Every structure is written in C-alpha cells, then in structure tokens.
Amino acid sequence: MEQHLFGNKLIGQFLGVDDEERAQAEEEARVAGKIKFAVNASFIVNFCLFGIQLYAAISTGSLALFATAADAFMDLVSSFVMLITSWLAARPSIYKYPVGQTRIETIGVILFCALMTTVAVQLLIESARTLGTGKTESGELHLIPIIFVCVAIFSKASLMLYCMTYRKYPSVHVFFIDHRNDIAVNSFGLIMSVVGDKFIWYLDPIGAICIALLILFSWISNAFEQIWLLVGKAAPQEFVAKLIYMSITHDDQISMVETCRAYHAGQKYYVEVDIVMDEQTSLKISHDVAQSLQRKIEGLGDVERAFVHVDYECEHNIHEEHKPLYDRKF
C-alpha cells in the first residue's frame, strides 16, 4: 500500500513536468535583475570584508582574525575561480573538446579545495606554534578594527536576508549559505580575538585553530564530493523515475523503456535511455521519436547530454550491447 501511494506521489510530481520546466525558466528570467544584484553585491561585500579582516589581522597580530581573513579570502578567490571556469565552459571548442568544457568547473572547485586546505594547515601550524611558545607581544586591538569588522558582519547579515528571499535559485542559494556561515565564523573570530587580547591570551590561537579546522573539514568534504561527480556518481532514484516516466509517456509508439541510466559527468547528468518500439515501425518514425525524446530530456536543467537508443525487442541481454565493465578478470 505504501509503495502504491509513493508511486502515485511520484506520478503526481511528474505530471506537467514540461510546464514546470517552462515556468521555472520564465520565473528566473523575471527575477534575473534581482538575482544579478544579489550576486554582484555579495561579491563586493566579500571583497570589502577581506580587506577589512586583513587590515584588522595585520594591525593587531590576532591569529583568530587572520583565520577569518583566510575565510574571507576563500570566498573571494572562489568567486574568481567560478567566474573563470564558467567563462571557459561557456566557450567550447567543438574540435578540441567535442562535448564542451563544463567539467572544468568541477576541476576548478577541486583545485580551490586544495588551495584552501593548504591555507588551513598553515594556520593550524602557526596557531599550535603560538600555543607552544606562550604569550607573545602583539599589536593592541583598537576600537577601529572592531568597528570595521562589525560593519562587515552587519553587511553580511543584510545580504543574507536579501538572498533568503531568492534562495531557491542556485546562484543565490550559494551566497545565502556563504553569508550565513560567514556571520557565524566572523562573529566567533571577533569574540575570540577580543577575549584573547583583553583577558585570556590563549583563546586567540584556540579560536584560530577552530576556524582553521572548520575550513579544513568543509573543503576536504567538498573536494571528495566533487571527485565523485567526476568519477560518475549515479543520479538519485527519484530523478531516474522521472526520466522513465517522461520516456514512456513521450509517444504512444513507445511500448516500454528497457534501460534508463543517469550519472554525473561533472555538475550535471549524462542520461542513457533504451526504448522499445514495434519492429514494423519505419526508420523515419523511430528516428523522429527518439530525437524528440532526446531533446526533451536535454531540456531538463540538470541534464547536460542525453542518448536515446531504439530497439525492437527486449529479450536480449542488455549487457551484451557494450563491452563488460564489471566482469573483468585481473
């Protein structure tokens, strides 16, 4: 009974999937200006925040503020990396890279993860060295750097509230999460720096260690996630079920869906669908049905490429169509 209800729920979600995709595209076009403002304003605030954090860290020698400056630098450089990789991906060379260069975005994220892991490890080493050598003389934490950092945090909070309104759009959602995390990290770093300067000196390097560990673990996990996307991680079953429903309801001449695969090739999916049609169907009709289905699947926002294969029976072993991947003898 539960499986029946679950199946009905999935079918209810798939009905009108074309209208859903079209409505989503129209909605994104309608709010494109507001999304662009959120992205540009977030980039400007990240740039200003890095300058403020770097000034405060250098003027005081606070390791906790150096850690928050590293976090701000991470946001800034990630924006540049994503901008460059997106620019490269949008300019494909059909002869050198026949299927485009979109996977360079995933590679860019992995390279950036390696960079920030190195920065985090260096912060851990410096903080541990400070704890080992004991309290050292550093610049006094003046009121002006504190005010600057508080202004930056307030700006982040304002942008977070603005981005919250449009967080259903992927580009804005990334900045919403970024602002939310930065508010917590920068507030924690400022508190640890002030308390370490005025009361308990070792709280400053301890705060730096906590922030560095947060940077380290978050980017290592992000790197592994991106690596699995390049390896070819399978799509969720719900998405595969959506593809099957789209295929079987695409045309009355499709008698069944023999095989349906979806897997990552970077950020988006590659889809392989084998459909069965009557053996008396003309080549022209089978070609047109398969091509229109292929275009329909490629119209989904999460799909980069789709391949539709037409067969006339389903009695054969589907694993014989390609060379075996899992039965190799070593």
UniProtKB/TrEMBL annotation:
InterPro entries in alphabetical order: Cation_efflux (IPR002524), Cation_efflux_CTD (IPR027470), Cation_efflux_CTD_sf (IPR036837), Cation_efflux_TM (IPR058533), Cation_efflux_TMD_sf (IPR027469), CDF_Transporter (IPR050291)
GO MF entry, a single one: monoatomic cation transmembrane transporter activity
GO cellular component: endomembrane system; membrane
Domain Cation efflux protein cytoplasmic: start-end pairs: 247-311
Record's keyword terms, sorted: Ion transport, Membrane, Transmembrane, Transmembrane helix, Transport
A Pfam family this chain is assigned to: Cation_efflux
GO biological process assignments: inorganic ion homeostasis; intracellular monoatomic cation homeostasis
Domain Cation efflux protein transmembrane residue range list: 41-227
Membrane topology: Multi-pass membrane protein
Bilayer-spanning residue ranges: 37-58, 64-90, 102-123, 143-162, 206-224
Subcellular location: Endomembrane system
NCBIfam families: CDF
Protein's name according to its UniProt entry: Cation efflux family
